[in-house]
Design a protein that fits this description.
The structure holds 2 protein chains of 2 kinds. By secondary structure, chain A is α/β, with parallel strands linked by helices. Chain A contains 9 helices and 14 strands. The chains are: A alpha/beta, B alpha+beta.
């Protein structure tokens, strides 16, 4: 199995004719992703590496019955593109771009919830089910099919972890970039139950960081509903309070809300194994596998 | 992007929320030339981002022009926490009979705007939450509905506020919400929201925080940011779309990476060895030779920074480009500096050749952990 995407997933790329969209679009096709259409307003009727381009998501959806869309448009157009995808009936919408205005994404977040679409991102590298399909810009060469399901707020910490896992011949079921922004469309808690039910996934990894309360919420859920072993890393322990560390979401409030200590404590109480570094994640997983 | 009080009040004024008449000045001459627009007595307020400026002597009252000029000379240039006072806001003093608290913030947990009101104004809302939690109300706003009349009615009824202020308050709340959404705010706070002797509502202070990612549609805020007296390295870095973050002044180590997450991981690991980090630089995407070279040069503009730890891993990053960038930066001559670098990506084999040609100021490491260990060991031997 695997979650969210697999060989059968029919994917649309919004912004397919742009520099990033076409570059990574081609790599997705080469990886085996079933890219059924691209969307760029004003470019309908064209083809990009054999993929038909439509002016609107609705047309692409009508022609292909796509299940998912990955959005490669600049930050200021991201919300508009995401609304269009959700309104056209796309079930899974993945937004890539960094520096998307948080008020824009607040609107998209609530709209996706109301319409029952799964929104991933913004500021996400996408989703990959190794050996099957990828929707995003991650370098697929480092991934390997296997039993570890990963969700990460950070792309770089995730790559690092995956790279070392693969080196140890430990593969991944599905790897999700939930993104580093203030209001991610979906977060750890939204995928825990999917990983729990997925027969391929045997170990779940959460790569979190300081700021917000998503790790805490995940901890509560894990305690009550998750039987599979969970490993978590919280990056940013030594970042000063009130200082933005690059990810808009990675900021500890003046009163200490969102601190690494609080997150680790809650996760530990839920039976989660706490990793001290990306390298330590790999050690802990090796321990579970043995 | 936090705004200074005067800028926040400018926005309030723009949205029809009453504020005191005031002037902003950066020098005694400017004060002399502007102050006759105001009617005494005056309030002089240091414009700094840090809290607690009243206790630090950054807020003073003056009966007339002479006293105002004298006191402003004392406030301008003083240091409050780490900020030097460069600007002063001088307003007309108003007589007040009551103070409330009102703010709208973007709440991350509920992913919606939240209105916070308290009839106890003029104190930190965190204090009220701790000492008198019943005197505070938090109301979630559905972003698709916005503020409706019943929100103000709820507040008035809950705290039994005098109905004669209702119309003004309801309008003010709705205008504040308009400002909050139109200016992409994550916080707008009026504390205190005062009631004058004439029974008018007036905002005596304002804290505002605007989403940095939205500045493309707020040229006035962008301009305000560019005009701020920031660390020159932050500004230099921003020109290349790098993020430069000053951290601990006592350290001589800088860290550079191509993503926020790895940057934080590196800082965590370095801190575990007992060291601190002076500054961090996030390259973002696009690790080209030129960008790497510029980033290294910016970091070493700080003369105290002696060690630079670089960790780059983007999957498709070309390691030879990164190494080439390091070489390019070192051609400018960075004596007495050490760079520890770990790289993962394509063309990694060529890296060692390039680094070998640079000499012993660059040390290659396999993985973050080894890099951090090497950093610790060269620092201890020097």
């Amino acid at each position: 199995m695997s979650i969210l995407i697999d060989k059968e997933t029919k994917l649309i790329i919004q912004g397919i004719t742009g520099r990033e969209g076409s570059f990574h679009g081609q790599r997705m096709v080469e990886y085996g992703t079933k890219v059924v259409a691209g969307v760029t307003p004003g470019k309908g009727g064209q083809e990009v590496f054999g993929i038909p381009v439509y002016d609107t998501v609705r047309q692409a959806y009508e022609k292909t019955g796509a299940d998912a869309s990955v959005i490669f448009v600049p930050a200021k157009f991201t919300a508009g593109a995401a609304y269009e995808a959700i309104d056209s009936g796309i079930d899974l919408v993945i937004t890539i771009s960094e520096h998307t205005p948080v008020h824009d994404m607040m609107g998209v977040y609530h709209y996706a919830k109301a319409r029952g679409s799964t929104l991933i991102g913004p500021n996400s590298f996408g989703v990959i089910s190794p050996g099957k399909s990828k929707a995003g810009f991650m370098h697929d060469g480092i991934f390997l099919k296997g039993n570890v399901g990963i969700m990460s707020r950070s792309a770089t910490n995730c790559y690092e972890t995956v790279f070392m896992l693969t080196k140890e011949d430990i593969g991944q079921s599905t790897v999700i970039g939930v993104g580093g922004d203030m209001i991610p469309g979906t977060t750890f808690i939204d995928f825990l139950s999917l990983f729990e039910r997925d027969s391929q996934t045997e170990i779940i990894v959460i790569i979190g960081e300081i700021g917000g309360g998503d790790e805490e919420k995940a901890a509560t859920y894990i305690k009550d509903y998750i039987d599979k072993p969970v490993v978590a890393l919280i990056a940013g322990k030594n970042a000063p309070r009130g200082k933005n560390m690059g990810h808009a979401g990675a900021i500890v409030a003046a009163d200490g809300t969102g601190s690494a200590e609080k997150k680790e404590e809650k996760l530990k109480n839920a039976g989660v194994l706490i990793a001290e570094s990306t390298e330590h994640i790999v050690d802990l997983i090796k321990g579970i596998n043995n | 992007m936090k705004l200074l009080e005067y800028k926040g009040k400018e926005l309030l004024g723009k949205y029809g929320i009453p504020v005191q008449n005031g002037i902003v000045a950066g020098s005694p001459e400017e004060i002399t030339s502007k102050i006759n627009k105001l009617t005494p007595p005056y309030v002089l307020k240091a414009q700094v981002m840090t809290g607690g400026r009243g206790k630090a002597g950054g807020i003073k009252f003056a009966a007339g022009i002479d006293q105002a000029e004298k006191l402003s000379g004392e406030i301008l240039g003083m240091t409050i926490k780490d900020s030097v006072v460069k600007k002063l806001l001088i307003t007309e003093k108003v007589d007040i009979k009551d103070e409330w608290y009102l703010s709208i913030m973007l709440d991350r947990v509920i992913k919606s705007p939240m209105v916070i009101f308290s009839p106890l104004g003029g104190v930190d809302i965190e204090e009220t939450a701790k000492n008198d939690p019943k005197k505070l109300v938090k109301i979630t706003v559905d972003p698709f509905l916005g503020i409706k009349g019943y929100t103000a009615r709820y507040i008035f009824s809950k705290f039994g506020l005098d109905k004669k202020y209702f119309e003004d308050f309801a309008l003010l709340l709705s205008n504040l919400y308009k400002l909050f959404t139109e200016y992409d705010s994550t916080l707008v706070e009026i504390n205190p929201l005062a009631i004058t002797k004439e029974d008018k509502l007036i905002a005596l202070d304002c804290k505002a925080d605007i989403d940095n990612s939205s500045l493309f549609r707020h040229p006035d805020i962008y301009e305000f940011r560019e005009g701020l007296d920031e660390d020159v390295l932050i500004k230099d870095a921003r020109k290349y779309n790098f993020l430069y973050i000053p951290l601990k002044d006592s350290s001589d180590i800088a860290v550079m990476s191509n993503g926020s997450g790895m940057l934080m991981s590196c800082i965590d690991l370095i801190t575990k060895t007992g060291a601190e980090v002076r500054a961090a630089l996030d390259l973002g995407g696009g690790a080209t030779r030129e960008r790497i070279a510029e980033a290294i040069k910016i970091i070493f503009k700080d003369k105290i920074t002696k060690y630079l730890f670089i960790s780059i891993f983007g999957g498709i990053t070309r390691c030879d480009e990164v190494a080439g960038g390091v070489k390019l930066a070192l051609e400018e001559g960075l004596e007495n500096r050490k760079i520890i670098i770990r790289l993962e990506g394509t063309n990694k084999k060529q890296v060692l050749d390039i680094l070998d040609s640079i000499g012993d100021s660059v040390i290659f490491a396999e993985g973050i952990t080894e890099g951090v260990e090497k950093l610790a060991s060269i620092r201890s031997t020097r």
